[in-house]
Each structure stands twice: as structure tokens, then as C-alpha cells.
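Course assignment 3, question 2. Fill in each field.
Student: A.L.
Task: Predict the tertiary structure for the chain below.
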Amino acid sequence: MIQVIGMDKGFFEKVYDVVRRIPEGRVTSYGAIARAIGSPQAGRMVGWAMNKSFSGGEFLPAHRVVNRNGLLTAKVHFGGPEVMKQLLESEGIQVENDQIVNFEDFFWDPQ
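Answer field:
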């Protein structure tokens, strides 16, 4: 479990539980995750949780979490500017200019 001082570990674990369930070839948004865990105004906190997920040692399919418009806003956390895009494309999701093409077709609502 990742320990973050000053943050609700329970919140982060709820986020990670949802992220683990995102099907391959699908994506969801920070806001959709926040709504699914009962904190609809906490999309930014979901982003914080995702940022911290890279230091936890456990693989989470974080590349499947994008902003509400399908933009790859977290690509800087993947060890290179193209890694997030490559991971998504390996699952059949087309990305152009850091945005998922036909985002609505690939969106997964965790609720």
C-alpha cells in the first residue's frame, strides 16, 4: 500500500481499485473515477492518486486514465513523451496530437 502523508489512503486505494478494473482497450477519466468512488468533486485528487501510483511498485494500468476530453494529460509520468500513447495504441486505441480518437467509443464508465 502506498502511504501518502496528509492524504486519505482509503481514497487512493478506492481509486486504484477502480483503475485495476478498467478493461484492456478502454479508457476512463479522472472525474468518472471520482464519481464511481462517491467523491464527484475530487477529479484532481484522483490525478494526485494516479501520480503517486508510479511509486507504489505495483503495476496499475494508469495509461487508461485520461482527462474528460480524452487528452493524455499524464503522459509526462510514463518515462518518455510517447510511452502512454504507445501503451494505448498497443491496446487498439488510436491517439493523435495527445488525444484519443473517437474517445466516446473507448470510454468506460466505472459506475
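Instructor remarks: Confidence is low (pLDDT under 50) at residues 1-6. The chain has five helices and four strands.
Grade: pending
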